[in-house]
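Recall that a protein's primary structure is simply its ordered list of amino acids. Everything else, from secondary elements to tertiary packing, is in principle encoded there. The following example makes that idea concrete.
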Amino acid sequence: MASPGRAARPAPASEAGPPPVRPGSPQPLGARYRVAADGTAGTNFALWAGGAEAVEVCLFDDDGHETRHPLTELTHEIWHGFLPGVTPGTRYGYRVHGRWDPWTGARWNPAKLLLDPYARAVDGEFTLPAEVYGHVRDWPQQHVADTVRDNRDSAPYVPKGVVVHDEGGDDEWMDDRRPKTPWPDSVIYEVHVRGFTMRHPGIPEHLRGTYAGLGHPAAVGHLVRLGITAVELLPVHQFAHEDHLLRRGLRNYWGYNSIGYFAPHAAYAASGTRGQQVGEFKQMVRALHDAGIEVILDVVYNHTAEANEMGPTLSLRGIDNRGYYRLAGDARRYVDYTGCGNTLHVVQPNVLRLITDSLRYWVTEMGVDGFRFDLAAALARSMHDVDMLSPFLAVIAQDPVLRRVKLIAEPWDVGSGGYQVGAFPPLWTEWNDRYRDAVRDFWRGAHPDVRDLGYRLSGSSDLYAWGGRRPYASVNFITAHDGFTLRDLVSYAHKHNAANDEGNRDGTDDNRSWNCGAEGETDDPAIRALRRRQLRNLLTTLLLSTGVPMLLAGDELGRTQGGNNNAYCQDNETSWLDWSLLDDPEWRPLTDLVSRLLRLRRAHPVLRRRAFFSGRAQGQGGLRDLAWFTPRGTEMTESDWYAPTATLGFYLSGRDIPQRDAQGAPVTDDSFLAVLHAGPDPVPFVLPGTPWARAYECVVDTSEEEQDRGPGTRYEGGAVVSLTGRSVLLFRVVED
């Protein structure tokens, strides 16, 4: 069906006409500025559009006037041509011609200007008026609206790609020193570029909310003082705001709605959006690398911002809908393993190439050190089922660039069989939500025993001790961007998402939280003190656990979102870090505790195990490398694991750690005893005596606000200590 209205027409060319399009090359894909063999400077354009009938590259001047150039060369389904005189900074897009037959999945519409999926930079924002939809969005018969083609020109309403000059790839980074932090030594900090910097008083106002702001010494200094080794940036690929948010006056804050997999999100650039954002991003990476901090990107290759059949036509849908997306039996519809309306068809070679080309680009030309894959199970699906021998995982495993960087899976999607925690192959680490749930449940008193907690504290060997995987396959976390902040976890029993304007229906109801006796903020000093102690308990547990710890940015400050557990559309002070907390005497000790724990972790290899515990006696000393204790000071028996308890002690032996240093010498360390007590009342705990220890020194006591008070006290082996209700004690074994 065709709608009323006129099809888009190109702007008139000058009398001399545009320069002739030379054949150019089908490789590489995208817009690449270069100098031809005859010395002519220009840009080569190459676009994969498998079933298209014709492709035009459209150039835009500063006034928005459009000039169209047909790409007449077609090689292996790639349309290509070289345009002399097209220089870096030029804005462009594509119009792709073909059949309009949504019933068979064909949705070509040359009235829609399309973003190059390989665009290195994007200028402008997606505002999503009706003109950017390939179908008539407001057609009276909504059940067939997606089948009626809209012939209105979308060019005035969509951003354009920008030609960027590539400055040399790996050679550009020869003077950059990548930290290359080993996995066991890593501490990840999940952070939003805009949210971390918007309210930071030490960052100049014009740099707040930008890549330059995150690379500013004031921002980097905080990360260094904490002891962070890697930032995991919420999505920085170019993304679009959803129509339903824009209609309500909201915006997508998190960024899980990608549309440009090579372009840094333009709104995070302080320096400009005509290619300057690329250099600004690189400078941020360099600043972080100089401080010894790696950069990991949260990437969303499972779906795009084009949503389902009722969504806008921005890029891939108009290039080759059937070639890029998983379509249902009724080809009008999309298979949705993501909950976002569509799923990229990663089994298709052109889609797999798009993703891997993008990944390699961010490593070799943008300097990043790894990736966290959103809904990674959707990428691991073959035709339907999740398959750990899928093309995507196989390609990553053999790629000489990608197999060397940090790879983190969010090991689930929303489709059938999508929950795959513990199932990814050995190169991968995984977000371990079973760790999150077990630790939350223990500290809120929800579990009668500690069986599951024992596995989670010691590296989750039940999930990862196979195929050569190590304890660092587990990324341990208690909070992340989606859910309560740590302070809200101990302040709210229920979500409070009214500001999202969805009737409080959005966001999970499975929070596993405890409000300590009052919902939300309170002036009750006892409740406030208990909440701060619970925060110290949770953070101490996380940073003493075997595996890779991940902190949510701002948790070390005591940041709150007012009980909103789904702040994906709150680009405001709800989500932005409140740096005044750093100077608040009530919350400053929390930051100091995190720094103290991370110094301790960095100094002691026994807290950064490279191999799973055996539970057996090690070396001549005859001590287990890991031992579990009851409050009686006796080792846990099988029946003890099943008995109701809120108290657990675990002993980490620093003798004969199964690893060697760079010179091949055995690694030894101090031994530690940690005691976790989630009960409300004080209990006595007998410190294990010989052979475990003759004496202990307390190094962390979460019952104390300030850690320079309680810690330092010495106890003899066999002594009885009183555990404050809901607290953690960490002891170092004294050998002299």
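The chain is about 20% helix and 20% strand. Confidence is low (pLDDT under 50) at residues 4-16.
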